[in-house]
Every structure is written in C-alpha cells, then in structure tokens.
Recover the amino acids of this structure.
C-alpha cells in the first residue's frame, strides 16, 4: 500500500503530526491512515469514530488527490503503530511527541522511542510546538564511523528532493584515532558523491564529538537553523557507552525540531 501512517489521539501534538503528514502525503501522492490506539478493548468506539470523522472532514479540503482514512487498534501504542505500518507496507510513520502518550513528558519520550525501535518504516517525530509555517530548508545528517551511518541518506535525499532542501553533512569524530577520522572522512566522501549524483544541494563540516554526540549534533543544528535531523535508530549506540541512553533516545528527548529516525538494515561483512 505504501501509505503514510499517523499516530493520533486527539492531542495537539498528534494534530500537528496530521498537518505535517498531509503536506508530505500531498507531495508524495500517497494516502494517509490515522491510527488511534485504545488502551481498553471495551472502550466505546462510537464517540471516537465520530470525533475522528469530524476532524477529518475539517481538513478534507487540504487533501490534493489523496485519501485519508483511519483505523482503531487496541494495545500498546508503539506495537500497534508498528504492526499497522508493517501490514500496510508504509513509507513513513509520523508521530507527535505529545500525541502518543498523554501528559507526562518522560513517558512521551520513552513511548516515542519504542515506536521508532519497533517500526519497520522510518519514523518522523514532531513536537507539538513545531513551527509548521517554516519551510524545510535545511536537513542535517550526522555521520560517524559506524557502517550503518550511511543507510539514512536515501530517506534524507527523498525529503530534500521533495522540499528543495539543502543537506548539511556533519562528520563526527568520536575519538582522536586516525583510523576513526579516516573512516568518517571516507563515509562523508561517499555520501557527497551520492548527493552530487542525486543533484541535491549539500554542505559539509566536521566536528569533534568525544564527549557527547547529541550535544555536538544539536549545537550544529542550531548553528545552521536546521529544520530536520535524520538519524539511525541504532547506529550510534557504540559511541554512547558513557552516556544516559543511546544517541537516538537522547536526540528524541532533546531536539526541538523534527527528527526522522531510520532503522538500520542487516548488512553483511562484505558490504561494510
């Protein structure tokens, strides 16, 4: 089906996610599916369906040749979103941080993190205070020395081509090792050639990130006024052993701009 899945629960965060999803879906010419997850199997569905249909009717005029449907599921939010994405062969899952788990900030972060870990499709996280009126001009791709780091590039390119964005490559040196530096430089060079072939505008910079990858990445994001950060869900774990949580989890908790998380695919030793 290759549609776009949106986590929805009537909160302001999920409403922002729907707005963003409509924009992306219109550009990609893909249908949308809102997923509402009930916690209680006995919960009355009638008022839920009535409210969703009322809200969908209110934004129907924004749909440009695409359809927006919804489905009610029951269980854990992350698992149900992932299952729906798998069943639909979804291209992307979009979630609002305050639209996934009520009102407790810490729980929001954990639940969103579970979603990106379980989802077979890339997950775009947007906070409820996201400035929807600002154009997606600058996309940041942090690259480290792990083999998986390049796997997020095709999705970043798709977003850049869709919105006419400039991609900013940030080579992250996690140690003073010449081997690490050489590997990062090699990966960045490969990505630059890929972007040239795709005819995507790009800028490259390098930074020492010995202490904290997240802080270094977010500082650079602020410097370039980034509108989106594209990361892997697992690639940077090996470089955060002294930190609280993985790079992806820290990024979700601390980034104020949308974060697009891509699951690494299994790669064999010959492709590393």
């Amino acid at each position: 089906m290759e549609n776009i899945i949106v986590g929805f629960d009537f909160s302001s965060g999920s409403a922002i996610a729907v707005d963003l999803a409509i924009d992306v879906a219109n550009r990609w010419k893909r249908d949308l599916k809102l997923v509402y997850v009930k916690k209680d199997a006995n919960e009355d569905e009638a008022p839920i369906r009535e409210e969703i249909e009322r809200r969908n009717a209110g934004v129907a005029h924004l749909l440009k040749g695409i359809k927006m449907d919804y489905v009610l599921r029951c269980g854990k939010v992350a698992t149900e979103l992932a299952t729906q994405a798998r069943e639909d062969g979804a291209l992307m899952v979009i979630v609002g941080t305050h639209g996934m788990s009520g009102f407790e900030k810490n729980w929001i972060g954990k639940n969103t993190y579970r979603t990106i870990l379980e989802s077979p499709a890339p997950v775009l996280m947007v906070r409820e205070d996201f400035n929807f009126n600002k154009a997606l001009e600058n996309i940041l791709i942090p690259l480290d020395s792990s083999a998986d780091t390049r796997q997020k590039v095709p999705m970043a390119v798709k977003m850049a081509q869709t919105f006419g964005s400039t991609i900013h490559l940030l080579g992250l040196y996690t140690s003073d090792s010449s081997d690490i530096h050489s590997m990062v430089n090699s990966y960045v060079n490969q990505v630059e050639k890929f972007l040239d072939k795709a005819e995507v505008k790009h800028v490259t910079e390098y930074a020492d990130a010995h202490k904290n990858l997240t802080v270094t990445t977010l500082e650079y994001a602020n410097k370039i006024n980034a509108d989106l950060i594209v990361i892997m869900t697992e690639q940077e774990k090996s470089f955060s052993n002294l930190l609280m949580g993985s790079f992806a989890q820290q990024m979700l908790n601390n980034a104020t701009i949308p974060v697009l998380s891509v699951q690494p695919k299994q790669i064999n030793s010959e492709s590393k």
